[in-house]
C-alpha cells in the first residue's frame, strides 16, 4: 500500500459491535496500543458501530429477581441452583441489572457468597467482577475461552465444590435467545456417572435483533474516516456481513446475490474477523477472504492480527486474486471466481 508520509495519525478501527458496559475490553486494549507502519505513526482509534440490538427478556429478568430474592441459589441442600454459568457479556449485563435494582440496604445482597460463578473468558469475567457484593463473587473458568473447555472445567470443579453429595445441585445458565447447546449437552451427558452429571437449566435473559440503523451508521463512519491512510473493520458475527460489504462498496447491486468485486477495494480499508466462524461465513457466502482472522477470539487476538498484518501481503494477494479472476482457478474452499476481480460465494 503506497502512502504519503503523514506524521502522527490515529488508525480508525471500526468495531461492528455494541460497546460493552461498564467497560469494553476491545476499546481498552486497542486504544492503549501505539501504532507504527511505514509512514503512519500514532495509535489505534476504536469506534463502535452496533450491528445487533439487545433487549432484556422480561420473563427471564423476573425469574432471576425471584431466585435472588428468595435465596434459591446457594449451598443449601434445598437450593434450586448451586451456581451460575455465564458465556455472554449481555447475560452479565442483564444479571447486573437485576442486582442493581434489588440491592436496597441489604449488605449481603445478592447472597451469592458461597456459590461458584462460571465465566467463559476474560471479557465476561471483567464484567462480572464489577457486580457489587461483599465479599466479591467467586468466579471460575476465566482461562477456558470457549464453551467446550468451560464445560470440561465445570465437570471437575463443581464435583469438588460439592464433593460430599451423591448428586449435584443443578446449575443456572443465563443465555440469550440464540445460543449453542454445547455446555448443557456436555454437563448432562447420559454417559456420565450420576455423581458427576449436572443438570443445567437455561433461562433466557436477553434477546437479539439486527439494528435497523446499521447500514446508515456504518456508511456515516466510513465517510468520517475516509481521510485515514489505513483503517480496519472488525467483524464479530455473520450478522450484518452483507451490509458491511455493501457499505464498503464490494457487493455488486447489478448481479446475483452474493457477488463481490475485489477490484473495488480501496487498498487502505482492511477487514478482520473475531474467529474462524465469521471468516467461514464471509468466504462461503460471499467469496470474500478477510485480511485477518484473529488466532484467539479476544481483544489481544484482534490487536495482534492488526499489528502483525503486512499491507504488502495484501497487495500481492489482491493482484493474485485479480489474475485468478481472469481464468485461473482459485482452490480455496467456498470461492468461485467470476468476471475480472468479481466473484460469487456459494
Automatic annotation (TrEMBL):
InterPro entries found in the cross-reference section: 4pyrrol_syn_uPrphyn_synt_sf, 4pyrrol_synth_uPrphyn_synth, UROS/Hem4
CDD domains per the UniProt record, alphabetical: HemD
Signal sequence interval, chain numbering: none
Sequence ranges assigned to domain Tetrapyrrole biosynthesis uroporphyrinogen III synthase in this UniProt record: 45-304
SUPFAM superfamilies referenced in this protein's UniProt entry, alphabetically: HemD-like (SSF69618)
Gene Ontology molecular function terms on file: uroporphyrinogen-III synthase activity
Entry's Gene Ontology cellular component terms: cytosol
One BP annotation, GO: protoporphyrinogen IX biosynthetic process
Domain of life of the organism encoding this protein: Eukaryota
Pfam families for the chain: HEM4
Gene3D superfamilies in alphabetical order: 3.40.50.10090
The protein, known as: Tetrapyrrole biosynthesis uroporphyrinogen III synthase domain-containing protein
Amino acid at each position: 500500500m503506497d502512502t504519503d508520509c503523514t506524521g502522527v495519525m490515529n488508525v480508525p478501527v471500526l468495531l461492528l459491535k455494541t460497546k460493552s458496559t461498564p467497560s469494553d475490553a476491545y476499546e481498552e486494549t486497542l486504544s492503549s496500543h501505539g501504532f507504527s507502519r511505514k509512514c503512519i505513526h500514532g495509535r489505534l482509534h476504536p469506534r463502535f458501530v452496533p450491528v445487533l440490538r439487545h433487549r432484556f427478556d422480561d420473563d427471564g429478568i423476573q425469574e432471576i429477581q425471584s431466585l435472588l430474592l428468595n435465596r434459591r441459589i446457594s449451598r443449601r441442600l434445598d437450593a434450586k441452583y448451586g451456581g451460575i454459568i455465564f458465556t455472554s457479556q449481555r447475560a452479565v449485563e442483564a444479571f447486573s441489572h437485576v442486582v442493581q435494582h434489588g440491592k436496597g440496604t441489604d449488605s449481603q445482597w445478592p447472597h451469592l457468597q458461597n456459590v461458584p460463578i462460571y465465566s467463559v473468558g476474560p471479557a465476561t469475567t471483567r464484567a462480572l467482577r464489577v457486580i457489587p457484593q461483599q465479599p466479591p463473587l467467586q468466579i471460575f473458568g476465566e482461562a477456558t475461552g470457549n464453551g467446550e473447555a468451560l464445560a470440561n472445567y465445570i465437570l471437575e470443579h463443581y464435583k469438588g465444590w460439592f464433593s460430599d453429595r451423591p448428586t449435584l445441585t443443578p446449575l443456572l445458565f443465563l443465555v440469550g435467545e440464540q445460543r449453542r447447546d454445547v455446555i448443557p449437552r456436555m454437563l448432562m451427558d447420559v454417559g456420565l456417572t450420576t455423581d458427576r452429571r449436572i443438570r443445567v437449566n437455561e433461562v433466557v435473559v436477553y434477546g437479539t435483533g439486527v439494528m435497523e440503523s446499521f447500514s446508515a451508521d456504518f456508511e456515516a463512519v466510513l465517510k468520517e474516516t475516509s481521510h485515514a491512510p489505513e483503517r480496519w473493520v472488525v467483524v464479530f458475527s455473520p450478522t450484518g456481513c452483507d451490509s458491511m460489504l455493501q457499505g464498503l462498496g464490494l457487493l455488486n447491486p447489478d448481479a446475483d446475490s452474493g457477488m463481490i468485486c475485489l477490484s473495488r477495494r480501496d487498498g487502505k480499508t482492511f477487514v478482520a474477523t473475531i474467529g474462524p466462524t465469521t471468516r467461514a461465513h464471509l468466504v462461503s457466502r460471499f467469496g470474500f477472504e478477510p485480511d485477518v482472522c484473529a488466532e484467539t477470539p479476544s481483544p489481544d487476538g484482534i490487536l495482534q492480527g492488526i499489528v502483525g498484518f503486512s499491507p504488502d501481503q495484501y497487495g500481492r494477494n489482491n493482484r493474485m486474486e485479480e489474475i485468478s479472476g481472469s481464468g485461473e482457478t482459485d482452490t480455496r474452499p467456498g470461492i468461485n471466481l467470476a468476471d475480472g476481480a468479481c466473484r460469487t460465494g456459494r
